Amino acid sequence: MNKFIENFVLPSEWMNSSPQKIEPISFGGIKLPQNTIYLDFASSTPLDKRILEKMTPWMLGYFANSANRLHPMGELTEHALGWARTTLAKIFSVSFEEVIFTGSATESNNLFLRGLVENPHRKRNKIVYCATEHSSIIVTANTLSALSENIQIAELPVDEYGQINIQIAERVIDENTLCVCVMDVNNETGIRQLQLEKIRKISLECGALLHVDASQGFARSHLIAEGIDFDSLTISSAKIYGPKGAAALILKKRRPKIKLQAQLTGGGHEFDLRSSTPNIAAIMGFTYACLFQQQEASERIKYYEFLENAFCDELNKHIQVKFYGVKKQKIAGILTISFQNVNAMKLLEETRTVCASVGSACKTLQATASHVLVAMGIELENTLASFRVSFGLTNSEQEVREAAKILAQTAHHLREKSATLL
C-alpha cells in the first residue's frame, strides 16, 4: 500500500470532478488523456501538499524583499532565508556561507563552471568531465572552450556499465586541471558512479576541484550520506517533490579559497555570487523538501525498489526487453530500457497515456541518440529504441503494472504496423 499518496494531488483529481472542484486545464488544445500514468519523475516531481502549506504564507502574506531590513517585513523574510540556509548547511554538513541558492540545477552547474573560468585570478585551464554528464555540464564546458583558446576540455570515457576508466582518469587529470565534473547518479540510467571516490582522490592529489551534480543522487540514493567528499555540489528542488525554480550550489570553503565570478550581478545577493531578489516561497519549499527527503529517504528508496520490481516483473510477462545498468550498480526508480526494432519516440507518441521520456528531459524532443548510451558503447539502433521510465511516490503497484502492459502492447502494435508496410 502507498503510504505517501495522501501528501499529493493526483492527475486523476485534476481530470475528473474532484472534491476540491478543480477545473481541468487545457492549453493549446491539449488535455490530459483519461487514466494518464506518469512515469517521468526523474524529470520533474509533483509538489508535496505539506510543502505547499509551508510555502503559501510566503507568497500571500510575507512577501517582502529580504534585502530590505529597514522594516519588519523585510527583516522577517531575511530571517526566513537565514533559517533555510542554516537548515541546508546542517543537512549537507557544511557551513552557513557555503550554501548558495539558485533557480535550478542547470544554473548551479553554469555558475560553478562559468564562475571558475571567468575568475581573473584563475591559473589552471582544463575542465574535465565524465562522458555521461548532464548537458548543462557538457554543453557549458564546450561553449567555454569554444569562446577561449585558453580553455581546454577533456572527457572521461566510461565502460559498458557507465563506470569511469580510472587509468585514463589518472592520465587526464593533471596539475593544469581546474575542475573535474562527475555526477553521483546518472539522470538517464540511474547508474551510480562507483569510481567517484577514486576520482576524488586523484583530483585532490592534483589540486583540482571536484564538482558533483547530485540532483538525482540526493533524491534517490544514500551516496551523499555515505560521505563522498566534494568541493562543490548541485542539488535541485524539482527532483524531491519541492517547487520548481529553486536549487542550490554547495560551495565548500577551501584553502586556497574557491573563487567564482558572479553570473548575475547588481545587488550582491548570495554572498555576491547571485544577484536577484530571493524567491523566499520557493526557497522555503525547497528547504522543507530537503528535510522530508532526509527524514524519509529509507522508506522512499524501498518504495522505489518495490515499484521498479513490479514494473519489470510485469513487462517481462508480455515482451522481451533490454535493461541498461546492472542492478547492483544502479539506484532504484530510474530505468533505461528498449524493445528491439521499436523506435522509442514513436512508441511514446503512440502510447499517450504513459508519460515517459527519451533520455534526459532536456533533450526529449531531439531525434538524436542518447549521449549517455553512446558513451557506454551501445549500438545506434539500440539507443534510438531506448527510453527512460522513472517512478515516484504517487505511483501505485497497479499503475506501474498497467503501464508495463500498455507499453508492451504498443510495442507489439508498432512492430505489426511496420511489418505490413514491408
Task: Describe what is shown at a glance.
The protein is α/β, with parallel strands linked by helices and 422 residues long. It is 41% helix and 12% strand. Helix 5 (135-147) links the parallel strand 3 (126-130) and strand 4 (152-156).
Notes on the protein architecture:
InterPro entries: Aminotrans_V_dom, Cysteine_dSase, PyrdxlP-dep_Trfase, PyrdxlP-dep_Trfase_major, PyrdxlP-dep_Trfase_small. Its cofactor is pyridoxal 5'-phosphate. With 422 residues, this protein is α/β, with parallel strands linked by helices. Helix content is 41%, strand content 12%. The chain folds into two domains: 167 residues, Aspartate Aminotransferase, domain 1 (Alpha-Beta Complex), CATH 3.90.1150.10; 241 residues, Type I PLP-dependent aspartate aminotransferase-like (Major domain) (Aspartate Aminotransferase, domain 2, 3-Layer(aba) Sandwich). The strands form three sheets. Strands 2-8-7-6-5-3-4 form a seven-stranded mixed sheet, with helices on both faces. The chain has a three-stranded antiparallel sheet with strand order 9-10-12. Helix 10 crosses helix 14.
Order of helices and strands: HEHHEHEHEHEHEHEEHHEEHEHHEH
N-C termini distance = 47 Å
CATH topology of the largest domain: Aspartate Aminotransferase, domain 2
Structural domain tally: 2
Per CATH, the class of the largest domain reads Alpha Beta
How confident overall, as mean pLDDT? 91
Return Rg in Å: 22 Å
Number of β-strand runs: 12
Helix/sheet category: alpha/beta
Q: Strand order across the biggest sheet?
A: 2-8-7-6-5-3-4
CATH superfamily of the largest domain: Type I PLP-dependent aspartate aminotransferase-like (Major domain)
Biggest sheet character: 7 strands, mixed
CATH architecture of the largest domain: 3-Layer(aba) Sandwich
Question: What share of the residues does DSSP label as strand, in percent?
Answer: 5-15%
